[in-house]
Design brief:
By secondary structure, the chain is of the alpha+beta class. The chain has one domain: Gamma-glutamyl cyclotransferase-like (Hypothetical upf0131 protein ytfp), CATH 3.10.490.10. It contains 7 helices and 9 strands; from the N terminus they run H-E-H-E-H-E-E-H-E-E-E-H-E-E-H-H. The strands form 3 sheets. The protein has a 5-stranded antiparallel sheet. Helix 2 crosses helix 4, helix 5 packs across helix 7 and helix 6 crosses helix 7. The radius of gyration is 18 Å and the shape is globular.
Length: 237
């Protein structure tokens, strides 16, 4: 019998406290990058299709794609990828879940360890169209700081090759020097036009727990972020 999800310290009430309506400032181009164009999107999708392993295309999701898949899918299953782990190391976000005063920091796959996530099998008949949806969500600037790649994943049904997005440690957007306490400071404050980093963390951890996936690092972070929101809003319920 599945275990009931454990009680998170970070709650929807915490998320509501930090929520603010912020207008979309538009793409925030960083030094060394440029906005991705239709030609870029077309080239990326073409390369994915040209290098696709035999059989259906599987997408490995480890962050927001778990709780908000961009693409249609016809099957899902849990999987583990070894040699990578999920980490808040993709910076800085001045638009979607952060701003210039309090930038956000997004999840990406970083080298080392292992990561349990979800696999989604994309539909063959509209595969190219679904890949375009995915790429246009994940790639806003080029060169990509967390480019797509094929990884080996293990499922209860056996091994597979899957598409995912992993951090380029050589990118100027790779943020690795923050302590857990500093990272919690960032996640508790950052808000962009799409929502807050607290909401992003809450949605990710709650969905992982619902699936029976316990990420110890994110579990500690959600408690630290809740503490900071309580401290910043002591009179709010």
């Amino acid at each position: 019998m599945p275990r009931a999800p454990r009680q998170m310290r970070l709650t929807a009430a915490h998320v509501a406290r930090v929520h603010r309506e912020i207008p979309d400032p538009g793409i925030q181009v960083m030094p060394g990058f440029r906005p991705a164009t239709d030609d870029d999107f077309n080239a990326i999708v073409a390369e994915i299709l040209a290098t696709q392993p035999a059989g259906p295309l599987w997408l490995f999701a480890y962050g927001s794609l778990i709780w908000r898949p961009e693409t249609a899918f016809v099957e899902s299953r849990q999987a583990v990828v070894r040699g990578w782990h999920r980490r808040f190391c993709l910076g800085w976000d001045y638009r979607f879940r952060g701003n210039r005063e309090a930038p956000g920091l997004m999840l990406a796959l970083d080298r080392g360890g292992q990561c349990r996530g979800m696999l989604y099998r994309l539909p063959d008949d509209v595969l190219e169209n679904e890949l375009h949806k995915l790429i246009r969500r994940e790639v806003s600037m080029v060169p990509s700081a967390f480019p797509w790649r094929w990884v080996d994943v293990m499922t209860t049904e056996g091994p597979l090759r899957a598409l995912t997005f992993a951090m380029d440690r050589k990118s100027g957007r790779y943020i690795a020097e923050l302590s857990e306490e500093q990272l919690a400071d960032v996640l508790a404050r950052a808000v962009g036009f799409r929502g807050s980093m607290a909401e992003y963390l809450f949605s990710t951890v709650s969905k992982l727990e619902e699936l029976g996936i316990h990420d110890r690092n994110l579990w500690r972070l959600q408690a630290l972020v809740a503490e900071r929101i309580d401290a910043a809003h002591p009179t709010e319920s």
